[in-house]
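The protein record passed on below.

***
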Amino acid sequence: MEYIQLNNESPDAVEALAGGIAHDFNNLLAAIKGHASLMMNSIKPSDPLFGHITEIIDCIDKGSEIANQLLGFAKVDAYYTSSIDVNRLVRRAMENLDLKGKRVVLDVDLDTKSLVINADSDKINQVIGAIVDNALLAMPEGGTLSVVTEAAAILNGTAEAYGLDTGFFVKITLTDTGMGMNCETLEKIFKPFYSANHLNYPEKKGLGLTFAREIVQNHNGVIDVWSSVDVGSAFSIILPLAEPIENADLPSADERLVLGNEAVLLVDDEQRILTVGREICKALGYSVITADSGKKALEIYAAKKDEINLVILDMIMPEMNGLETFLELKKQNPHIKVLLSTGYSIDEKAQEMLRNGCKGYILKPYSVIDFSHKIREVLEL
């Protein structure tokens, strides 16, 4: 892992002040969040105060984002770079999106090849988050958010236009079907605290896109933007491609298998998925029961619900789909833990499941590492 300190020159008074405020602010938020978490752990979810404490913690997290933006403004933020698989990073970012109630369909198309960059994963996640926030604001009535990753060769005139050296790059493109932006707005979206609310965007002023562009530039890349009013917008994050994945650094703690010992009910109408899923779960330490249909899953769960800790449920199945199966399972156990296993589209049925208490989803095809982490996330909710 490489450590980079940006801008070694002494910061001026404004930068020093911003950095000091951000540091103290983050420390204060950390203390508040610690106490709030202790209170949350001392009460039940049914307690009237539980929702208030949850909201407090959410506000703390939003405040921390602002503090991190101040750190960026102060130019004292450090970058910790390592070899990152872009597909894995994007997949995790999309799986962590909260689309409940937004009527937004998520469509993800990841390159089949490993795309490795040398980057700070937290910073690139911040870039993706800023662009996704912008996309969701542009779709207040709903729409489609598409995410595509691919390798691209950028040569000669194109490289010169971007201000890049010629070579091979990774391209992450996020496209929305929102209200779009005119030329005047496009010229201003990366300015600090700029608001596009004159185009009927919900009011939101901040530094998200400003720092997104700065982060990408500090990684020797660019953000390319296209937009058309009433059609939508597309943001392309273009970053230098690094060495093949087999030459990457050893995996971090977040990239290692997480084991367990609970009982899992795996539901899928594809026998091949059941076979490989059973073997993966067993290798991770879980005991596994399989069902090849929603109806069979209901029968098994009715007989063994006291033994089953988690249901991993496919969405697209004949006769009884994932949503129908989930709703019936909820009748048997309102507190059931269900992980939705689905393809590259989070449609209305999937969103309805999430609104009704499905604990999470994972996109197919998934790696064993990602699968192991997602199972633990849901089981520990």
